[in-house]
């Protein structure tokens, strides 16, 4: 991920020995804070969706995929940045260079595809509710997620052949660096393909689809079920349908707003890094200011860490599930202290009590 901005020197960003003490303290603190919060938050997203039955919706399946991708970005890109700041060189060796570079791009590309997937799912659910009954299902969502991860995993294999460790001499000191094998002229077409497929096109598609969704939600009423058309003459049932439709409309609006915020933050927080790479691609000497590079990295890590915060702030279901998970503590599998106590009761019905506890 970070190699892309250093197209002039063709090496990983930030691998210098002249980091100031202030830079080391600030970068290590901020990266550790953002990555720590992000790792815990994304793990909670995965846990609440997998353990709470009412949270296993098609949309939340895509959010689990996004959380897994964000975890990969935070661990493969964020945590190595801490050692870069402390040691001033690559410390993970050749295998680490290949593996970490691969998982960086896999997490980035899988997160972009996951965002695109739930954007399309929201469009179908809102604009084509009849088709959504058989298109927007949990089983179909799982198949799409598996396809997304399979395709991105295969696509990112090329980074295993494009990355390598190199030795650099800086102030008479030999430094190990994780860099690209190919030259700048060969790398740029690869980067711009990646930039177009996993950033520009998803944002263009999201802009169009959320525009159509907004028109339905805020300008037109939600399409009614054709099965209910024969009952329109009955006032009581019409009022019931109106109330039910209003609640469903508000629920869909809240979910759509939350997902739209995720997409907007994805566009904004990735913009500094993407813009820097594009600008450096046309400069004879790349712009590699240390503090601005840190800012670009922090924006990327923040993008992967902030989504659970958005879910907690904008979704009542996620907020309640997070609170329940936190209150359960080590007993989050659903076994309370009282239930655990029942497991050790010496009664003839202990087997029955055990079954009741687990189910």
From TrEMBL:
It is found in: Cell membrane. The keyword Kinase does not apply. It is a multi-pass membrane protein. Its main location: membrane. Residues 225-251 are annotated as: Disordered. The chain crosses the membrane at residues 25-50, 62-82, 144-162, 197-218, 254-271, 291-314. GO terms for molecular function: thyrotropin-releasing hormone receptor activity. One of its GO terms (biological process) is phospholipase C-activating G protein-coupled receptor signaling pathway. Keywords: Cell membrane, Disulfide bond, G-protein coupled receptor, Glycoprotein, Membrane, Receptor, Transducer, Transmembrane, Transmembrane helix. It comes from the Eukaryota. Residues 41-311 form the G-protein coupled receptors family 1 profile domain. GO terms for cellular component: plasma membrane. Residues 225-238 have a biased composition (Basic and acidic residues). Residues 239-251 have a biased composition (Basic residues). PANTHER family: THYROTROPIN-RELEASING HORMONE RECEPTOR. Belongs to the G-protein coupled receptor 1 family. Receptor for thyrotropin-releasing hormone (TRH). Upon ligand binding, this G-protein-coupled receptor triggers activation of the phosphatidylinositol (IP3)-calcium-protein kinase C (PKC) pathway. This is Thyrotropin-releasing hormone receptor. It comes from Acanthochromis polyacanthus (spiny chromis).
């Amino acid at each position: 991920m970070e190699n892309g901005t250093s197209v002039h020197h063709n090496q990983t960003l930030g691998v210098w020995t002249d980091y100031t003490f202030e830079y080391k303290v600030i970068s290590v603190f901020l990266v550790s804070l953002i990555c720590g919060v992000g790792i815990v938050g994304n793990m909670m997203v995965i846990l609440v969706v997998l353990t709470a039955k009412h949270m296993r919706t098609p949309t939340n399946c895509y959010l689990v995929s996004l959380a897994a991708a964000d975890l990969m970005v935070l661990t493969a890109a964020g945590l190595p940045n801490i050692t870069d700041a402390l040691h001033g060189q690559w410390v993970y060796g050749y295998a680490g260079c290949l593996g970490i570079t691969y998982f960086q791009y896999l997490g980035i590309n899988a997160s972009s595809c996951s965002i695109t997937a739930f954007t399309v799912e929201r469009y179908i659910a809102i604009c084509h509710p009849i088709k959504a009954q058989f298109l927007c299902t949990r089983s179909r969502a799982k198949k799409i997620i598996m396809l997304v991860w399979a395709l991105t995993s295969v696509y990112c294999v090329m980074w295993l052949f494009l990355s390598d460790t190199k030795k650099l001499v800086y102030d008479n000191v030999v430094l190990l660096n994780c860099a690209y094998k190919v030259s700048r002229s060969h790398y740029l077409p690869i980067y711009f393909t990646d930039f177009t497929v996993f950033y520009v096109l998803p944002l263009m598609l999201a802009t169009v689809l959320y525009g159509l969704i907004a028109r339905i939600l805020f300008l037109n009423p939600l399409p009614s079920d054709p099965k209910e058309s024969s009952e329109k003459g009955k006032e009581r049932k019409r009022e019931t349908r109106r109330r039910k439709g209003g609640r469903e409309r508000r629920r869909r609006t809240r979910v759509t707003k939350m997902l739209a915020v995720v997409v907007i933050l994805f566009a904004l927080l990735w913009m500094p890094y993407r813009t820097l790479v594009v600008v450096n691609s046309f400069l004879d000497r790349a712009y590699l200011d240390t503090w601005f590079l840190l800012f670009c990295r922090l924006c990327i890590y923040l993008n992967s860490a902030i989504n659970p915060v958005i879910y907690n702030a904008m979704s009542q279901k996620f907020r309640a599930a997070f609170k329940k998970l936190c209150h359960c503590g080590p007993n989050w599998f659903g076994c309370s202290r009282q239930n655990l106590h029942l497991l050790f009761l010496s009664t003839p019905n202990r087997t029955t009590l055990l079954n009741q506890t687990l189910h």
